[in-house]
Amino acid sequence: MTRKGRISVFIPLILFLALLLDGTLAFIFSAHFYTATDIYVPRLILLCLLVFAFYAPRKNMILFSILFGLLYDSYYVGILGIYVALFPLVVYFVDKLKKILNPNFIVLSMLTIIMVSMLEFSVYGFYHMLELTTMDMSLFLAKRLGPTLLLNLLLFFIIYYPLKKSALAIVKD
Amino acid sequence: MNQFFSNKKLIILLISVIICLSLIAFSITGNRNASVVQQFTNDVTALTGRIFSKPANAVMNTIESVDHLMNTYEENQQLKSKIDDLYESGAELAALKEDNKKLKEQLKLESTLSEYSGINGTVIARNPDNWVDQLLIDKGSQNGVEMDMSVMSSNGYIGRIVEVSPTSSKVQLVTTADQNISRVAAQITTDKGPVHGIISGYDAEKNQLILNQITVDAELEKGDTVTTSGLGGVSPSSLFIGEIEEVQLDAHGLAQEAYISPAADIDDVRFVTVVKRNAESGE
């Protein structure tokens, strides 16, 4: 398969699986992830977008992020327009950064922290604006952001190596 | 002005912001059920989602059965003590059912609020970000699921259907923070007859539902059972919600407010029953 073919087949496939896995993880571990004191939000799809954005061309990644943002919105909540705005932003930022950063383990884990926080803050902003939540900022920081960062960093440690290998295999000439 | 519009990036940004905001506005205020395109994509995604949820469920069932095996002895002791009661109440129930049937025939009642039929479903996924507490289940309009139907887990009421596609649908749990749509007409069974109220919130810290708009005269006790009243129009009556934990006056002092510990384990739902009421709603 050509490089172009691999990019337009395997990257969407992996993103799709990540999206489904997010929902499945949330449902299997719902008793542990969503407690009264902590909320752990799995964000595998964001981690995949983050890593792929380093290797795949920008045009493809922006397109995929829009498509999967739409799917995420439609499949999980039914309010279109939240993730479809945020996923491309993440890809755009990573794309800007990839000229000055080298995608090694440390840099990518730092970026995970930054991007997950950015995403969580913006989603919180959206839901606050839509008045679908009454949670205040300090509670959000303690209850959601902290645990979510922890969980996603852990998930990143697990998937970093296979994800990087597959990304390299997909984009090689 | 000219320079402003020549900036291509800014224009793209502006247009995408406008598109996103109008999408949000459209999906919040628009037609209550999702569009056909959305239903189709959701169905296809849900279909593939089962690749993960089926094995996950199988593994969890195995773990659970091992867990059950460990507790068998203790459980057996407890159950033995309960079983005599159960026989008695079973016989009583049969007699009451017979009575009920005869009385209904005399009154020429065709269907009452308490009659319902159930559709069993399995959970495929849960909304990961949890801002809106929603589950995705594997039954849709082809199986008879309709908008607003009540959903029960094994032991109690957990929420209602908010979106229906042909082979999958979304359940919004009672624990969701969205006050406007998670309201449930409820009824408390007391010694002096039923008392009505509305479930309109959830206290995440205590893991308790909040039932308010109860008249001040009502005397409620801890342990009183709360069920749906069927007066909300869609759900049948007598679906078990939970038991009262605490009663107090509300913020204005005009009504009472009760905290209910839900009977269903809302944090760990894997199998659900979608409840279809037999009586026609008044709408």
UniProtKB/TrEMBL annotation, chain A:
Its main location: membrane. The chain crosses the membrane at residues 7-33, 39-56, 63-93, 105-124, 145-163. Belongs to the MreD family. Keywords: Cell membrane, Cell shape, Membrane, Transmembrane, Transmembrane helix. InterPro entries: Cell_shape_determining_MreD. It is found in: Cell membrane. Pfam families: MreD. It is a multi-pass membrane protein. This is Rod shape-determining protein MreD. One of its GO terms (biological process) is regulation of cell shape. GO terms for cellular component: plasma membrane.
Automatic annotation (TrEMBL), chain B:
The keyword Hydrolase does not apply. Keywords: Cell shape, Coiled coil. Residues 69-113 form a coiled coil. GO terms for cellular component: plasma membrane. Transmembrane segments: none annotated. It comes from the Bacteria. One of its GO terms (biological process) is regulation of cell shape. It holds the Pfam family MreC. Residues 123-276 form the Rod shape-determining protein MreC beta-barrel core domain. Involved in formation and maintenance of cell shape. PANTHER family: CELL SHAPE-DETERMINING PROTEIN MREC (PTHR34138:SF1). Belongs to the MreC family. This is Cell shape-determining protein MreC.
